[in-house]
Amino acid sequence: MSMKSASTLASAALILVLLAGCGSAAKPGAIAIDGPEQAVALYKQSCIRCHGTDLKGRMGPETDLHDVGARLSEPEILRQIEQGGARMPAFGERLTAEEIAALSSWLSGLGKSE
């Protein structure tokens, strides 16, 4: 077997291995996030890109939402969603006041001890 053929075969095998793992990855539409239906739907539509399918965040530790309710009050979360800040864009013109309130209410409960 020539060196070029071996390299091509190894590349093909690597691609197959990588593709085999794709089927087990959660797809954005199929993620399981616990919360009110409207809030979770809004999260999937507007927040998942930066905050991830697991709420852990993709843009650094400040984007981890697991304990956001322990760090910020509901009015602070509402203001953050509405006005943005730091690296977060404002959603006040993209979402309705009702949608922002639904997200804020749900997120403010995350990370609070019961």
UniProtKB/TrEMBL annotation:
InterPro entries in UniProt: Cyt_c-like_dom, Cyt_c-like_dom_sf, Cytochrome_c550/c551-like
Record keywords: Electron transport, Heme, Iron, Metal-binding, Signal, Transport
Keyword Metal-binding: yes
UniProt keyword Zinc-finger present: no
Domain Cytochrome c: 24-111
Pfam families in UniProt: Cytochrome_CBB3
Sample GO molecular function, one term: electron transfer activity
Signal sequence, renumbered to the chain: 1-25
Domain of life: Bacteria
Protein name: Menaquinone-cytochrome C oxidoreductase, cytochrome C subunit
